[in-house]
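Quarterly update, task 2.4: flavin-adenine dinucleotide-bound model.
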Amino acid sequence: VFPPCASDYYQFDDLLTPEEQRLRKNVRAIMEKEIAPIMTQYWEKAEFPFHVIPKLASLGISGGTIKGNGCPGLSLTGSAIATAEVARVDASCSTFILVHSSLAMLTIELCGSEAQKQKYLPSLAQFRTIACWGLTEPDYGSDASSLKTTATKIDGGWILDGQKRWIGNSTFADVLVIFARNTTTNQINGYIVNKGAPGLKATKIENKIGLRMVQNGDILLNKVFVPDEDRLPASIPFRIQARLFIVVACFIWVVIIGGFGFIFTQLQSSILEDLNSFSNSLFITNNVLQQVLAVSRVMVAWQPIGISMGVYDMCLRYLKERKQFGAPLAAFQINQEKLVRMLGNVQAMVLIGWRLCKLYESGKMTAGHASMGKAWITLKARETVSLGRELLGGNGILADFLVAKAFCDLEPIYTYEGTYDINSLVTGREVTSVAGFKPAP
Ligand code: FAD
């Protein structure tokens, strides 16, 4: 039986709306009753429990903040709290949901046309179909924007060629959102590849030490055809289209009239500036991608919060129940210090996570905010689960006692969605205005 939640020491619940509190309670109850009893067994087998998908659907969180097309339209705070509650009981389940919802569905919502949203989102929101999100490649992980998978235009669609690595849910996903580079324009777009497309192959990555229930795959794309209607459009904002129209009109006027050297010189700089913003706008998909990553980094930051909450709950119960030297483990001062350090970490993590959500909801969150949150929270969670592992002694290395499982599950979370280092560099660039991603020449 999963221990009662004891980690809300600073009564964080008071900061939530009644709706968010209800959501939290509901998700906690379903996870503790339906998922907790089976998860260790599936984690050990490294299999995904397909039979629990209807139960995960009953959480009502697939699609998160997306409004319409059958999605729940939750606040970011609500969505984040739900993520923590899922991760408190099982991190693999929360990763399964985040890849499907906060990465794949959100990309379709932000980069897709109305027709694409209507076609894909309703069944994804019900988990009738499952999605994955393929950005990382074997040779491009942290440096994902250098990706090499290509999209070549042919009549009626596109041909995708390349490889993806680590893609969660990819071995069974119905809808695969794949990022590829246009061979003519160099632009990166998302392409929706449907399960069973000729030339598509996903092979499970074996022997993971964490998130073992999640099916991560190596994807091979060998001349996979994607029809035009399944390419996520890279729309050029109207403002830039209008400015470009004015610039081109001025340019033609100057060339036709000729001889107006002075006017031409004056216009030239404005033309170059607008052409520059036009060329930036060609990479609008990349910008939207940053938006997707910023939101999903907030969501991912709530996974270590949930994991730490679950580990604290486990440890508190264990220390009260187990006796050594004639006294419960909880009676030893050293153990109390560790327990309180864990509890303090959870309070600080929750408050940073909560503030991130509020910054996002008020339109003030930057990429640097999201990255620092993800980086710092996973760092603190690593300390928290490690203390928990210690407190359980030998049982701290057995998956059955959940703390060891949580300890292992945190490792991939520290690395995915931007490693600790990369997220620190994103924030570092924002606060110093100097990018530190490349080694000195
Ligand atoms: P590398 O980029 O090779 O980095 C290795 C080390 O070098 C890291 O410590 C890193 O911080 C450091 N490093 C790299 N560049 C720099 C730099 N400029 N400055 C300082 N340090 C640097 N991807 C998807 O697209 N979809 C998924 O669903 C998905 N799921 C995943 C699930 C799991 C379990 C895992 C482990 C990964 C998943 N990923 C997914 C991929 C994940 O996002 C990458 O693993 C991550 O971005 C790191 O890339 P890499 O593994 O290639 O490491």
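Highlight for this quarter: DSSP finds twelve helices and eleven strands in the chain.
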